Amino acid sequence: MSVGQSQYPASFKWAGHALGFSLGGFFDGILLHQVLQWHHLLSGLEQARQDIRVLILADGLFHLLMYIVAVVGLWLLWRTRREFPAAEADRLLWGNVLIGFGAWHVLDAILSHWILGIHRIRMDVDNPLFWDVLWLAVFGILPIILAWVVARSSTRRPPRLLSSPLALALGVGIAAALAALPAPGDNAVVVLFRPGTTPAQAMAALQRLDGALLWTDPSGQVWAIDLPSGADPIELYRHGAMLVSNSIVPAGCLEWFSIQA
User: Fold this and answer.
1) What is the pLDDT of residues 83-103, one digit of tens each?
2) Coil, strand, or helix at residue 75?
3) What's the burial of 181, exposed, middle or buried (CB within 10 Å: 0-12/13-18/19+)?
4) pLDDT tens digits, 52-71
5) Helices then strands, each counted (H, E), the chain
């Protein structure tokens, strides 16, 4: 499915599809894996859940793949740059971006959620199917329907809501980031230390901030600590931390780690 007339070359249409597909992957990876921390790419695999470094590596390789798809889209767009001045070229491009964005979420739902089972949208709920279907409807089916609306819309009155899928993704990402912030007085954070950091070095970093140890995983790389009021968790990055997260209660992915007090 493509939005556009037959006189446009196939590479112009596929440029939009590739860019939208990569934006869909980045949208899910950044929002769900990092901001909300509802799942990682391999959260549905028991062995992968035993080591957060495996989960982070898989997420990184996934983002690398999306970078490659985005580069292909940009290359196709550059090859068809002579089409830019054509009437309705911008509308057709954004329509195909919407199709690619929706196609990513349709593929992710069918392949990753229901066939392979490598993750679900929410891994920490009693009814994960509800969240799978909701996410598919909002970010998979709806963008494809909106692309159809773009195809039928007049160039004199382009739909303002559809003028920038990037603005939509950014708005949702900002709202999700604000929603994921800890409640006032919640000073507990999860810290992933860089490989090679010894327990003594991690404890020294904790003591610099007058923090209290809540638990640590068997590898000694993942620590949950309670910081005093007014302490800045960013300081932990100066003392060996590779990742610091405030979301330890709602982050369902962390519930599978083997932790020891």
Assistant:
1) 888 878 888 899 999 999 999
2) helix
3) exposed
4) 999 999 999 999 999 999 99
5) 7, 4
Q: Which residues contact 11 (CB under 8 A, 6 or more apart)?
A: 76, 79, 80
Name the one residue in this structure whose structure tokens are 């931390």: 241
**Domain chopping of the chain, boundaries:** 10-179, 188-256
Listed as ranges, residues in the chain with pLDDT below 70 are 1-6, 153-186, 245-261
DSSP per-residue letters across 98-155 = HHHHHHHHHHIIIIIIIIS-S--S-SSSS-HHHHHHHHHIIIIIHHHHHHHHHHHS-T
The CATH-assigned architecture of domain 188-256 is: 2-Layer Sandwich (3.30)
Contacts of 167 (CB under 8 A, 6+ apart): none
The answer to whether residues 159 and 149 touch, using CB atoms and an 8 Å cutoff, is yes
What's the pTM value of the predicted model, to 2 decimals?
Answer: 0.61
Q: For residue 46, is it left (φ>0), alpha (ψ between -120 and 50) or beta? A: alpha
Is the torsion defined by CA of 23, 24, 30, 35 positive or negative? positive
Rounded-to-integer distance, Cα 61 and Cα 243, Å = 17
For the beta sheet containing 212-216, the strands, ordered from the edge strand earlier in sequence to the opposite edge, are 212-216, 222-226, 188-193, 241-245
Contacts (Cβ under 8 Å, ≥6 apart) of 142? 102
Q: Residue 182 corresponds to which amino acid?
A: P
Q: How far is CA 238 from CA 188, 214, 222, 227, in A?
A: 18, 21, 16, 16
